[in-house]
Amino acid sequence: MTVKSRAAAAALTLVFAALAGAAQAAYPEQAIKIVVPFTPGGATDAVARLLANRLSGKLGQAVIVENRPGASTVIGAEAAARAQPDGYTLMLSGSTTYTVLPALKAGLPYDPLRSYEHIAIVAMAPVVLLAKNGLPAGTVQEAAALARQRGAQGELMYGTFGAGSAPHLAGEMFAEAAGAKMMPVPYKGSAQLVTAMIGGEVDLGVDTVSSAAPQARAGKVRALAVTGERRMPQLPDVPTFAEAGMPGVSFVGWYGLVAPARTPAPVVQTLSRAVAEIMEDPQVRKSVADLALDPVYLPGQAFQAQIAKELRTFTDVAARAGITLD
């Protein structure tokens, strides 16, 4: 190659590099889609739509939410993992997708750490231990003592959302901390669970704070303790498990935004900066808190660390409790 041709090749390389840089700097150039692996109307959907609205304003492009429910979030999670890694398909889902299912179910079509670029965790979702009215246990410690008194046959029953659900894992953490064996009873959701507790079908229940707080304030059930580092504004008189002497009951759900693996780093950085700014907005934080969630911003590295930690914890809890999902 002559000096002249080498110079021409070098010039072309610089042109292509400049064009590539300009293309990345122009992101986004079209609408962005956020996959939500749940039906419309729930907390995950609400958080996604709040983010979509604010991201649209930050990035200058439409951001739409696409609900892809089914197979305990696997359908939407797989679709997001297999999407083109260009920053135009994202996913907002809860910890069920990222840690609970991977800890309990083999052969998932995605890996929570390797299938995605982790943008941010934006909200934490504590759960609450409930007692039916009339149960002779006014505190979480009294409930633990009652569970031990009922013997090793699991006579004290607690309601969950089914095997391997967040309430099931939290309930097993409580049973471990109490040194007792309890019997989980599956229900289809919060409404059915509370109805069962009012009717005396189960003694205890584990539910999300957002669903349970109105029922507790109305006196239909009693709230004994919440997970998380601090009390929830919706239940200000209810202690945390740590305050009640059971720090091991630490299950807290959360919501995280991801892109498919191999999405270009500048695109991920653009999204991360935008989300960080959004989560600093007092109005956004209030909107998240109004959903009985704790607004946060945990960037990609902290997001990955959260996944790795919970995978270890939930795998161990499930193994000791004999929880498996087919």
Automatic annotation (TrEMBL):
Give the signal sequence positions. Answer: 1-25
Q: Which domain of life is it from?
A: Bacteria
Query: What CDD domains does this protein's entry cite?
Result: PBP2_Bug27
Gene3D superfamilies, per this entry? Bordetella uptake gene, domain 1, Periplasmic binding protein-like II
Query: Keywords, A to Z?
Result: Signal
Give the similarity note: Belongs to the UPF0065 (bug) family.
Identify this protein by name: Tripartite tricarboxylate transporter family receptor
